[in-house]
Queue: 2 jobs
Job 1
Amino acid sequence: MKLNIKNIFINELPADPDTENSIRQVEKAVFSFVTPKKTAKSKVIHSSIEMASELGISTKEISSNYFKNIVTGNQVYPETKPYAMCYAGHQFGNWAGQLGDGRAINLFEVEHNSKNWKVQLKGAGETPYSRNADGLAVLRSSIREYLCSEAMFHLGVPTTRALSLSLTGDQVMRDVLYDGNPALEKGAIVSRVAPSFLRFGNYEIFAARNDLKNLKILVDYTIKYHFPNIDSSSKEGYINFFKYVSNRTLEMIIHWQRVGFVHGVMNTDNMSILGLTIDYGPYGWLEDFNFGWTPNTTDNQNKRYRYGNQPNIGLWNLHQLANALYPLIEEAKPLEDILNQYKVDFKIKSLQMMQSKLGLFTNDDDDLNLIQQLEDNLHLEETDMTIFFRLLSDFTDLPSSLEIMSAAVYKSNNIPKDFKKKWGNWFSLYSKRLLKESFSHRQRKQKMDAINPKYVLRNYMAQLAIESANEEDYSLIDELFQLLKNPYSEQPKNQKWFAKRPEWARDKVGCSTLSCSS
Ligand code: AMP
Ligand code: MG
């Protein structure tokens, strides 16, 4: 396995001079060198051939012992120096101080086909940032991250990627329900990949410590390597940088809203500076369309990170980033203007996104109203988001609308009269509105089916894969992995995955709600 290694990140950014792997506050450094922990008896249970080829790793190499040793942290690739990053964050709206890569260890930087990638292990042992935890990850949360990040990539949502999923052979103690009943679970490691794992929190920590020298070094580095069309490290350059980050963050969140993804923990330490979906924890997929839903039980009280609030939280997080960048700019107005523009752009882009889900590709003054009514209707009864929007492209007349609704509504017997009336009204408005479009039904269907996925990683699907994997059957991981590579295609043999959540999964832990335990 010959990789084209680069060491730009570790050579250009300040390292923690202390190389002792002990828990501490790390100042004036972007990262600390640390070696992954050796594992008992590791085994790679799945790899992404697509991701491997992006790194210049062949399918044959993936099955080698050497690959296994690298992606489980048992061997360090020659001429590389693994490290953990130092960052802070606002968690659930409160400043949390230093956090850092508590269980992520960056292995190396690879350049292939003119792309630069960082490869990182999640769950490979303690780092100086592990605080009071063990630096490890369990199989269930690793399967969830592995499957979902690749699924998001294939959905066209900006995201970090996954290269491999391995068992460590070690046991890890976790209290899944946080109810004082800890138990041993299988330890696992996901190797994940991104052009950068830098987060808002990486910038916040220097600003909070008034370390402007290193703040500037980090921002200059980020601009140079990740935003090369920004001119210089001038005040204008920094404003521009913030503008780009704001745009990318909004773009990512609009995609989440389009596919019904709820991140669950949008703390500023989980916000990528590149606008990538990062840190798949207690995330979830909307089954019934519900702006108020969050999968995260830790957030049950306030539901800060609920589906309908994600765009607002993106803005709140950008506000924290603006505060962190302020010392380099020393003028609030341009930053405020960008934050205000986010609100304006959100309205425009969110409307466009919803129009495209409905197959509307021209503008009409009443579209906002049509969408508002649709969203109200979707909240009347439990209505499956994925099924509703996917089948909407089959709408032609009243009978077809009834078919769509009966497929998408959870309790299809005992539907109140009022419900039928409201949907009847809506479909009649929609039908009139479609007449204003120039595409034929066939063309419209083709376009809509490329926007409204047929297959997403429903919460219960991941849970089924986890349960089989716990019994050492990894076939469902592969089945779902393959399924989710083509989320917009009709896959007749996989029709069973285009179905409402089964009743048994309604309130089951892991299927409907999740804690942060991972
Ligand atoms: P999260 O909300 O999962 O993104 O994690 C918040 C912070 O807790 C990050 O700094 C993580 O690195 C850290 N963390 C979470 N789980 C562990 C663990 N098992 N060991 C060490 N650090 C952890
Ligand atoms: Mg995190």
Job 2
Amino acid sequence: MNILKTTKSKLLLGTVFSLALLPVFSSTAQARATKCKKIVPITMFFHFRDRMAYNESLPIVRYIEKETCTKITSLAPKYASKSIDVLNLHLASGHLADVVGLNNFKPIATKYGVQGAFMPLDKYFKYAPNIKRAFDTIPGAKLKTRAADGHIYYLPYFNPESLSVGRSYFIREDWLKKLHLKVPKTVQELEKVLIAFRDRDPNGNGRKDEIPYCGRHWQESIRLVNLFGSRTSGSDYYFDMYQDKKNYVHYAFVEPKFKEAYKHVIKWYKEKLIDPQIFTRGKHTREILFARNQCGMVHDWIPSTTSFNRSLAKKIPGFNLISIDPPKGIDGSQYEEHARELVRKDGWGMSAQTKHPMEVIKFLDWFYSKEGLRANNYGIPPNPYGIKPVTYTMVKGKPVFTKQTLSQPEVVGYLYKVGASAPLGYIRDRANEMQMVTESDKKIYGKYLKWLIPQYSGVAYTKAEQRIYDRSWSVVNLNIVPEYLQKWMLGTADIDKTWDEYIKKVKATGFFNMLKVTQVAYDRTYNIKHH
Ligand code: CA
């Protein structure tokens, strides 16, 4: 819109002004200063993964403000242990920020969107070319985001398909060698390997101090039921529903086959094949137990796990974690349950109360633009505003992480600190992740693709269905189930003796009726007909 004016000024001012158009930072800064005719104030609530707020203290947010001519004010607390609770407080108070989001935002967006708390964004797509393009071209984008009333209330974080692999089983190859064991291919072979790790001193210190299977997320010990004929989840959230091959929706933890499978896992725990402290050891489990040369196996993210091969090479000569194929289960099945969804439930939306929806949608649209995708995938380029750290530069027209970025012990963690890689509405670039991983990591991604199974993308509940879901889902999924899973594993309650009382508690919340309602909603959402 300013093209005419600019051309005119250029003509008038001649060479003096054209200098300002050269990409010299100080001059560009002036151009930027004039480019922002006004600064749009935007309030934001984006608290995610129970620990981080997307706020003005993050370098990337300061950079984005400059690029989008906005002034962002975060209404989210910097630290909170449960992001969802803080967001619920905001929803209850009725005062929402212009932009609202969370990881796993879809259930909130579809629920409160139908109730009128969020703006139907599809009505604004025509003003948001980048958003529109994403929704038009990414398979399943509309189907997986829309609410029961047909409107779209949140803009998701999209993952390219080639990045759907997230976790792999990893085992200490040097320990296998030392004990003259082969890579386990079945759950029976795996059990033998874990017993050998426990009993035959692979770390060679003369003490029986090895922990065969460990993990920073205790839920990964529950997931071992995959090897014994049961599922745990259908999405990249722990404890979610899943659909079977015939499109029937399940919740694993109330099914008899889960009970039978879990008994095997409990046995492994009792026999100390699983870390006795798995429930309490926490997020630094790998750093601690690998560095002490004590842990033999994990099921975890690929690049962050293989990085221990480099960081511990000097300290523990021969230390070598290798990715192994998912062991074949007792029922003969072989799969990797964890995957990253293509249309994620993470993302953000716009408050229905916002006073300037057109400016907010333009702001949100920027995140799907080339510049916005770069900022979220790669962080901060050399810039005229003096904002640091610079995390990438353009090389032959492509964003490339700086050496400083790639030399960080944990690249993704570093990007989080800068504010990039947050689970807000944008598209993940495969090239970004491929820069962070080694050649052998790339092979693991390729190899694991074939073990993935279809993801459960949730459903769009009507208002009435939503009430039924709300009454039972959280209390069962967040309270009753984790409580019993831990009690049974720790041995403070016997699974056979307390299974009926457990099911009774679940049933009292209306959970089984909720599952029936979910099937109806699922069939409607995805146009499924059962014969
Ligand atoms: Ca030992």
